[in-house]
Design a protein that fits this description.
With about 325 residues, the protein is an alpha/beta fold. The chain is built from ten helices and twelve strands.
């Protein structure tokens, strides 16, 4: 009997021990699983945070790329005919905005248009309207002012009036002597601008002489044309009315004297626009935008008039 009781006690004790071991194993597994789940959660949170940080960095980089750098400078490039007008506007802008720098590179209309298309300047300057192929490149024009193209001769020349038809005949070689238009017996020396010049484009399109002019000299700036005509009593040329000096004489065209008033009312027919050229989809720097807004506002009209042109606004 005692033997049976001892076996029974041992069995109960053994069962209890087995139960305890089983409970311990289950608890350990549960703890391990809990730890693993916590580790997984932490890894997931870390991954999410890294992804968020990367996205934020990308967004910051994109924002930076889309914002144009502003170093306090406005760079312009192009028409030499616009020198007096754009120079006066640049000086006025700098006087009103301390620390700002304005630059102007007088390369000619064609070169200025190319410069803005290639991103080498903020604003291009053209003394002609944009052509279809230039618009197709994404370029945009804003008319700043209108300027007469003066037909200039040497002050010694007796001729004081020519009509558009006669001017065309002179430049195409149909009329070659000053005596045929009321002047002295002397060969007419034809002075013009280089290909790509806005002034040349305006002159030839208005007189109908595209690719027909028999130039003796094709010069690269308005100033050069004025200087050459001033030094040659038999020369004739064309130049921006805003740039004409008393070293040459501007003849009337069809009886109409070139002036701000006759350009404004349209009675002086040889005229063209002064154009600001920008690129569609390319944001100007804050400084360049401020300059653009200023020169196209009514506040700049008086400065433009003083420079010899007629403000568009």
């Amino acid at each position: 009997m005692k033997r049976k009781l001892s076996i029974l006690v041992l069995a109960v004790v053994g069962a209890a021990m087995l139960a305890g071991c089983g409970a311990g194993t289950t608890s350990g597994s549960t703890a391990d699983n809990t730890a693993n789940e916590s580790t997984t959660d932490i890894a997931t949170d870390t991954t999410d945070a890294s992804t968020t940080d990367a996205s934020a960095t990308d967004s910051t980089d994109n924002a930076t790329a889309e914002t144009p750098e502003d170093n306090g400078t406005v760079s312009t490039d192009g028409s030499t005919s616009m020198e007096k007008v754009i120079g006066a506007l640049g000086e006025s802008f700098m006087a009103q905005n301390e620390g700002v720098t304005f630059t102007y590179n007088p390369t000619g209309s064609g070169s200025g248009i190319t410069a803005v298309a290639e991103g080498r300047c903020d604003i291009g300057l053209s003394s002609r309207n944009l052509k279809d192929d230039e618009v197709a490149q994404g370029l945009k024009q804003t008319v700043l002012a209108y300027d007469g193209i003066a037909i200039i001769v040497n002050p010694e020349n007796e001729v004081s009036d020519l009509d558009v038809e006669t001017i065309a005949k002179i430049y195409t070689g149909e009329i070659t002597n000053w005596k045929d238009v009321g002047g002295k017996d002397a060969e007419i020396v034809l002075i013009g601008r280089e290909a790509g010049s806005g002034t040349r484009d305006g002159f030839e399109s208005i007189t109908g002489t595209e690719d027909k002019c028999l130039y003796r000299q094709e010069l690269t700036s308005t100033g050069d044309v004025i200087t050459t005509v001033a030094q040659n009593p038999d020369a004739i040329g064309y130049a921006s009315l805003a740039a004409v000096k008393d070293t040459v004489k501007a003849v009337s065209v069809g009886g109409v004297v070139p002036s701000e008033d006759t350009v404004k009312d349209g009675s002086y027919v040889i005229q063209r626009p002064f154009v600001l050229v920008t690129k569609e989809g390319t944001e100007l720097t804050p400084t360049a935008q401020k300059f653009f807004d200023y020169v196209t506002s009514a506040d700049a009209a008086e400065i433009i008039a003083q420079a010899g042109a007629v403000a568009a606004n």
